Each structure stands twice: as C-alpha cells, then as structure tokens.
User: Fold these one by one.
Assistant:
Number 1:
Amino acid sequence: MTKTLLKPVLVLVGLIAGPAPAAPRIAIPAFELNDITSLPNTPQEKQRTASMAPLLIAALSHDGAYLGERVADAALTSANAGFGYLFHHPDLAADLGKAQGADWIVVAQHSKPSFLVSYLWAYLVDTRNRQILARYDIELKGNHSSVTEHAIAALARKIKQSLAGPSSAPVSFSATR
C-alpha cells in the first residue's frame, strides 16, 4: 500500500516543483592577444592565449553553477569588426552573447607589454541590458602554463563572485598573480 501511494505523491511533487532551473550561461569568445613586445605574436604566445578561453570555460562550468560556452569562430568573426572591437563595444559583445543564448559574455584581451609580465583584461557583460557588470585586471608574472592556469582560475573566481553578489552597481577587480 505504501509503495502504491508513494509513486503518485512523488509525481505530484515533481509536477508542483517543476523542472530545476538551468544554470546561467556565460559565452566565452577567444581571448585576443595584444603582444607589443619586440618579438610579437610568437607561436608559443598565440598558443598560450588560445588556451585561455577553454580554461575559463572549464573553470566556470566545473561546479555546475554556471555553464561556460565557447563562442563559435564563425560567429565571433562575423560580429568582430577588428582587433579590440568587441572589447571596446560591450553593447555589441552583449548582442553576440545573446545570439548564443547566453545570459552573460566575457570579452577579454591578453596584453603583453614585456617578456616578463602580461595582463588579462576582461569585461563581464550582461546580455540583457548590454551593460558591463564588472571589469577584471589580472597580472601574470611569467609565461609558464601554471601561471596561465592560476590567472584563469582567479578570473573565474572573480566572475562567480560578481554574479553571486548584488549586481546593482558595476564592480572592478584587480589582482596580481
């Protein structure tokens, strides 16, 4: 008797509760490399910069609270009028994110003024109101993969922190790594 009552009760509870809300989606286009060293855009630096978006997607999606999604190269090329365009036009970056079905988009540049230090500059943009929610500046000392991984993990933590807290006012974070 208990088994026959339990099944309909569980079905009823499931119908009342409804489906679990989907994790907020964060679009992540490829990071741009702004290498202004005397020997710019080496294959190693291009590869390092290309690894940043996949690392951020993995870091944001790791616990299931957010769903980081890669922006397809074709969509990015179509939306981007040139180097730094989406970075300097967050409203248009928001449109790209919205077209991907994302709630947020992170546009970022990897700026390298010297061989010893580089910076990650990123904006977290709300695709609904086309406004920057937060800006992040992270210094990378060195060019080893562990430095890159540590910086991306720090960026992911800061993004999650921005999204978890009150979002009424823009936030700016700076970190040295």
Note: The longest helix spans residues 145-164.
Number 2:
Amino acid sequence: MQFNLGGRDRMSAGKIIDQLLFGDVLAPWRDLGADSDVLRDIPSMISFDERCFLYWLARNYYVGAGKIVDLGPLAGSSTRALAMGVLANPAISDTGSIIHSYDLWFFYTAWQKYFPGRELRRGADLLPYFLDNIADGRRIVEPHKGDLICQNWTGEPVEILFVDVVKTTELAYKVARTFFPCLIPGRSIVVQQDFISISEIDVPLTMGVFRDYFEYIDSPEGGTVAFLYTKPVPEEMLEMNFLDTLSMKDKLGIYDAAVARINKNDNYINTLMLAKAACLIRDGWGDDIFQAYGILKTYRRGIDKGEMIDAILSRWEDLFYVKLFNIMLGNQSVVDFFLPDLLKEENVAAVIGQQAFAGKRVVLYGISDVAKIVIPLVSEMAAKSISLCDGYPQKIGSFVLGRQVSSIDCFDPNSYDIMLVCTKSLQSESDIIEYVTERGHSTQKIMKVYSMVKENILRSKIRQCTPHTRDQSRAKEILLDMK
C-alpha cells in the first residue's frame, strides 16, 4: 500500500508536536512484521526504529519521482534498509542506480564494533565490507567513495535524502547547496539523522534557517527528525554562508523552537539543550559562555549516556574550559583548532610549523605526550622558534634538544606570541585553578589544541574579543564553583 503525507497529528501523540502524518496513521513503519528481519544483521549507529522507518519510506512512500541519496551509511545499515524497501515496492520496476550512497569508507579504530570479526587498521578501505553488507540490494545502489566536499551530483531530482554526514559547517553548506535545489516540492523527504545530537549542532541550525520551506513529519525513535520539502528554497539563500548570517540570538531561538516541538521525551529535550550549550561554547564569548555553564550544569546528568556521548560532552567541556580560562586572563583572541581522529600529530606539527615559519614564537605547554612525534616533523628552521615549558625537554629526551627546542620557566607574556596548550593539561578544574592562580602569569594569546572526531578537515576559527573586568570575575567564580 502506497502512502502520501496527509493528516496532521494535532493530538501530539508522536515524537514531534504538530507533525504531518503518512495518511492518518501514526508510525506505520512499526507494523512491518517479518519484513523487519532483514534489517537486524548489520551493526549500526542508527536505531532499529530508524532502519524500519527508512525501509518503510522506500517501500510505501517512494514512487520513483527522483533518486534516493544516502549520505554517510558507513557499514551500510541505512543503505540496506532503503534498498530492501525499494525492492519490495510494487510501484518500482527500475533496477538501475536508484540509491546513491556517499561515504569516506575510511576506517577509524573507534568503528571496530561496526565491523565485527574484521582485523582492520586505521585508514583501511571499508567500501568492500559495505558492498558485502548490502549484497542483496547491490544492483540498485551506486557508491560514491571520498570526501563529500569534493563530490558532485548529477542534478537529477531527489525524492528521499537521508543525511548522516553533517559533521562540520562546511558539510552543512555542501549538503544544502548540492541537494536542496534537487528536492521536489510537496514530495521530497529529508531525513536528518543527527537532528537530535550533541555533536552535529549545525543540523538544527540549518533546518531552522530553512524553516519556511520544510515541515516536520512523523519521525522514528533516535536522533532522526524527518521533514517534507514544501516549496523551493531561493537560490540566493543557498549561495550565501547562511549559518554565518545568524546572530547568537537567532541560533538560540532556533534551538528553543526545536525543543518546543519535542513531545514529552526528556532525553531528546536534554540532548537538544546540551547541543544549545555546545553552540554557545563554539560560537560564543563572555555571557554566552556563562549561559552555557548554566545549561551544562542543569542538563548534563539528565541524558542517557554511553561511551560516545561522554566523549562528545567532554570535548565540548574542554573547549568551554579554555574559553572560560581565556576570559579570566583577559585574552583578546582565541584560536580553536578542530582536529580529526582525536589528536592527529601531523596536523599539530603543521599548525606549529606554520606559526613558527611566520616568525611567531611558540611555546608548548603540557604537550609532552605528543611532542616526541610532533617535534621531529617540524623543520629545523621552524623548531628554533619553539620552546617547551615546565622542563619538558628533559623528560622527552635528547633528540628534542637536538632539534634546538629550548626550555622556558617563566610565563612573561612578552617572551612568546602563542602558547599551544594540550587538552590533557587542562582536563580538570583543579588543573586550571592551579595554572591560573599559582603561576600568576598574564598571557596575551593562547592557542588550544582541541580534539574532536571530524572528517579529514583542519578548521580554525579566530574569535576577536575585548573582555570586561566583570567577565573576568564571573569566569573565576565559575571555575571556583566547579572546583
């Protein structure tokens, strides 16, 4: 039976308040029966309910008016759900490339559990395993391996767009500019898998920017929220850097509106509130950081946590500490570096080398655990501009001294241009308190290496600011409260 979007859930019985329904039925994908068995055998980051939703969309909603685009399938659970749904769809007879799947298919050690029984090394090609996992539906799937930023689309209409790839602002722009113009008004569905997520904070912001062109529809349990594309997005909106046009007030309003649409699910609400805090931390300063602290303190304990959630929260909190620390010291600029795959030493070396070659005097603080790898990668000339503090040259060996890396004991702000601080050195409140109060220095600039799992992109953001004494006092109060 083919369904179209028709009724509206005005009784707010589903996941989303005031959502469009398929026909007049709430969550029809939960009545798949034996058909759901084909969706259970691939380890996945998405929930079983989300897989059933994708299968049902492809079987009961898809009519072949456009292609199906599958962004970020990794091991293939989303692809398999879509493919098996299409193959079970009596309205579809085409056996060509109906589904187009895009992924790096690059192995990170954190993904081992999604490839059980495989002995894989970092960087291994995952495409062959993906193809094995979708073997039953392979004939209608066309894989596109590589960085999505560098990929193109044919311009053909897209009827279903599944998005699980917006890990950076650049990817938010890429997805919107590449695929939104190909959506079919009144027909196409966009499935934003990371809408309710602590890490992918640009997803709700993107849908908030384009709220006049989409409507919320009945959505599965998990991070997914689905939307009907209702009318064409103006070309000029897509051409601009639409997220950069948002003020902090705009961003917070978008998050508040998203929270208001969640129907009585504390875990989803808490997650979106923590994402709001992450937005304040990433894009804010001063009062924004103080507001983020209030949200973190209120909502952090109310979320269903696992190893991955804890890691994401810890990374946002690391950046929170650094910004708070800089406000307290009265610094006028902060550079946040987002590095892929935790702390990638060659990128740290590139950052250090770039600054040193530019004539900047660089000090490394608390970075002994990576210095053994970083320093040899920096050229001899650049190394002359680098110093280590707290006696680290003695700790990491003569080869570092052989690179003419010096040691400093004082924190005179005139003795260096940039201090690069390792995440681990500021991982606790007591570390920060000790570092600030007992050493008594007044730095002018600090560079922070902040670890976050991203695609292979090194992205920097420079925040110019003029802190007020009031902000510095408030920052100190918060640090002491944390202690």
Note: The first strand starts at residue 5 and ends at 9.
Number 3:
Amino acid sequence: MIGILILTHGELANGFLSALKLISGNERQIEGIGLFHETDIEEYKEAVTEKIKDMDQGEGILVFCDIFGASPYNVTAQNFKNLKDVVHYRAVTGVSLPMIIEAVYCRKNMALDVLAQHVQQMGKDGIEEELKKVLVKLIKCKFR
C-alpha cells in the first residue's frame, strides 16, 4: 500500500489526521510530522528521512506538504537526492483535507505517480467560490 506522510508547520498535520479519523476511521500507513519553532531543522530533516524509509512497503510514499518553498517542502526536496534510489516518493504541496481523503481512498487502485497527479488536480478542482454560484443562479431565476 502507498504510504502517506503529511508535513506541515505546527499542529496542522495532526489536525488533518484527526479530521481524517473522524471521517473514515483508523487508516493505516498515514502519518504526520509537524515543524515547530523549537525544532532543529537538521533533526526534522532526519525525522522525515527515517519516516519515509520506515513507511515504505514497496509501493512508495506520497508526501503532502503545506507550503511550496517552505521548510517542510524544502526538507522533502533535499531528501530526494539521498533517497531516490532507496524509496519511490512524490511530494505534493498545498495540502487540503479533501486531497488527503482522496489519496487514502484511491491509493489502493492507483500507482504512486498517477495518485500524485490525481490528488493535485483534485485539489485544484476543489477550490470554488460557492456564494458567487448561488448569486448567479438567483439572478438568472429573477430575470426569467
């Protein structure tokens, strides 16, 4: 099974895991690591490296990061050089709860590269401004 690792600033990763548990129950092969002010960046990098290696069961790891270009993402990118021949993994930034849920439900039926692309597109497609749609529908109804 593809492992899922969520890397964020602060407690956000734990919040995602808590919400996921509420929605879908206990899931295997999904963990999170938060980065805090008191965290040494080299220790964080080592923790991420070890977690990626430990979680891999042969199908790879999907790493979600909260912000592109921030420390959790940078650590993931730096680790790629050292792990590329050891573990197959992909990193997707801008993580959201719907992306995590989709990854959990689809990881059994998709290869890692396909899953990474799928959740990235799903995340983009899931951003909507609903009130605007409602107002447009109301205006159309009013002028019929």
Note: The radius of gyration is 18 Å.
